[in-house]
Amino acid sequence: xxxxxxxxxxxxxxxxxxxxxxxxxxxxxxxxxxxxxxxxxxxxxxxxxxxxxxxxxxxxxxxxxxxxxxxxxxxxxxxxxxxxxxxxxxxxxxxxxxxxxxxxxxxxxxxxxxxxxxxxxxxxxxxxxxxxxxxxxxxxxxxxxxxxxxxxxxxxxxxxxxxxxxxxxxxxxxxxxxxxxxxxxxxxxxxxxxxxxxxxxxxxxxxxxxxxxxxxxxxxxxxxxxxxxxxxxxxxxxxxxxxxxxxxxxxxxxxxxxxxxxx
Length: 263
Known about the structure:
alpha/beta; Stationary-phase Survival Protein Sure Homolog, Chain: A; nine-stranded mixed sheet; two-stranded antiparallel sheet; 28% helix; 26% strand
């Protein structure tokens, strides 16, 4: 009998032993064939960074139901690179990343290792979805499990264009979930609030910290705003075409004249 189930690769940035990826795995049940390749330790904030000057160790990890799983001593992007070039015998149909502990709404999308793992898949023409819970301290992983499979199933049946992925965020546990909303990416961001200390040798050092600041001009249809209203948000993000064609149209002639004037 032919197996028509999708083959899905799971990764994250909180580390292979983090609870979020276990809930992501549980959410898929018998829906898909699954392999897991995730960082051996937490790699939050690693975005698309890759390891260049040290070896990556590939370690098998025992998982429930004999699900094939490996930890990689690198970033989420490293995990996807190694999964698709070394570990897996066939290309995944889909990559899912998360469930992240903490929001990836607003401009956090640019820093997130959760997002980075999915983007690396997009570069390899593998569609994907990043999942995050807004609440960092008490993420409601168990409560949101039931929403994951319908979201994944919908976008397998209704695929996004090549070069696009989906960034999904679940509202805080204190919020009653009102429904799903397709949203635009917000503009709010973490504001630096470093804990600066004095080293015994005399120089300063600091622990990087931040305060979440919602901008007054945040769009009402953004993931940031809709999460606060209790909606599960899904933002389609295009990363294949990054060129600002308006700038080319408005600056091309004058910029190229600079070079002609030098000659």
